[in-house]
Amino acid sequence: MKLVERMPRVQVTLMPEEAEDMWHTYNLLQIGDSLMASTIRKVQTESSTGSVGSSRVRTTLCLCVDTIDFDSQACQLRVKGTNIQENQYVKMGAYHTIELELNRKFTLAKKIWDSVVLDRIEQACDPTQKADVAAVVMQEGLANLVLVTPAMTLLRAKVEVTIPRKRRGSCTQHEKALDRFYEAVMQGILRHINFDVVKCILVASPGFVKDQFMAYLFREAVRQDSKILLENRPKFMLVHSSSGHKYSLKGREHEHCSLFMLCLLCDSQAAGEVKALEDFYKMLQHEPDRAFYGLAHVEKASEALAIDILLISDKLFRHQDVATRSRYVRLVDNVRDNGGTVRIFSSLHVSGEQLTQLSGVAAILRFPIADLSEPEDDSTSDED
User: Where does the eRF1/Pelota-like N-terminal domain start and stop, copy by copy (predicted)?
Assistant: First the structure.
């Protein structure tokens, strides 16, 4: 993301440069914001003879944001709202949908620029956050190819091949099916991984599936003289996983946690998030009076100046109710003001999905606090 122009307390002009920037933009936008961007509009024209025709024109509109739609797999962002500035093609108050485009500037204006929004802009414009790594998580007959960035975990390909069981005296059908499976996974790697960007490809599986696949991969690379695979062989790393499903990336033990190792390799902020979640689970198991989750309990701990590390999902900051969103922002600011660490988890990372199951907010405390008797206010933990 490129910061083009910033006007204090009024508006900011940004230019998304890659697909992940659309995710950052989605987290910046809120209902009621003003968005100015280039878009295509279908307009009707009437000739001097009275005939009516239509054409598509590019124009710049300023919308009051009403609906925000983000496609996490395609990284496409559509914003619907009413026109609030005079335009020769679109009447005031008319509805229009803008699809934000890469390498095209947009201007965002807000009534309130809080600390969470400003941090998101700083993160999106930080070039050191652009390290990408990939993972192939597999078992016999199933493989998931995912791309992990500092903000997202995206499923790029899923390979499923039926593998017949070995029969007594003959393994031919079993071996042929495995070769078809390995070939499909290899083609998925070649199709979906940009080796100029990706620093590391993690190959994870239970048992010896990963070892057998790697032997097949580079045997075929030599046979087919695939220079791209042979030149990037040092980028491949083998680790253990519990299964071939994407969610096996969320193992809680560091030695077997593919996501943790993957984040360390790319030195991204996600490494700190995964470590914080691991520490929270350990604290919850061994010292439950120092591990709280749920908004009401965490707020009580914050009032007691007890929070050492706050874990919070970015999903909560997309709450449509302004008062509820302000409550989360106030919690973040209070923890920081009192010397605590705040880890904002991406809801598109596996670790963020885990945190969402714990209401989206949790905390590791500096000192134990006895169980709180007040009931948890669950209604404020859900996104509208």
Answer: 1-126
**What pLDDT is stored for residue 252 in this prediction?**
38
What is the CA 132 to chain-centroid distance, rounded?
Answer: 12
Q: Is 340 left (phi over 0), alpha (psi -120 to 50) or beta?
A: beta
- Show Cβ contacts of residue 299 under 8 Å, excluding neighbours closer than 6 positions: 327, 331
Residues paired with 342 in a beta bridge: 310
Residue identified by tokens 């006895």 is: 370
d(Cα 305, Cα 328) in Å, to the nearest integer? 16
pLDDT digit string (tens) for 93-112? 999 999 998 889 999 999 88
- β 95-99/106-109 pair status: unpaired
Give the integer Cα–Cα distance in Å for 197 and 201.
11
Helices (H), the chain: 19-28, 115-124, 172-192, 209-223, 227-231, 258-266, 269-286, 295-303, 322-337, 350-356
Q: Residue 32 class from Cβ within 10 Å (0-12 exposed, 13-18 middle, 19+ buried)?
A: middle
The angle at the Cα of 83, spanning 318 to 103, to the nearest 5 degrees, equals: 65
Tokens of 94: 């008319």
What are the strands of the beta sheet with 341-345, ordered from one edge?
291-293, 361-365, 307-313, 341-345
Rounded Cα distance, 368 and 288, in Å: 8
**Residue among 17, 13, 12 nearest 1 (CA):** 17
What is the C-alpha to C-alpha distance for residues 153 and 258, in angstroms, rounded to an integer? 12
**Phi, psi (deg, nearest 5) at residue 161:** -135, 130
The full length of the chain comes to 384
| pLDDT of the residue at 154 | 76
Residues in the chain predicted with pLDDT less than 50, given as ranges, are 8-9, 251-258, 264, 266-267, 373-376, 378-384
- In angstroms, the CA 10 to CA 313 distance is 27
- Reduced to 3 states (helix: H, G, I; strand: E, B; else coil), residue 139 is strand
Q: How many CB atoms lie within 10 A of CB 4?
A: 12
pLDDT confidence of residue 71: 86
Could you give the CA distance from residue 311 to residue 146 in angstroms, rounded to a whole number?
A: 24
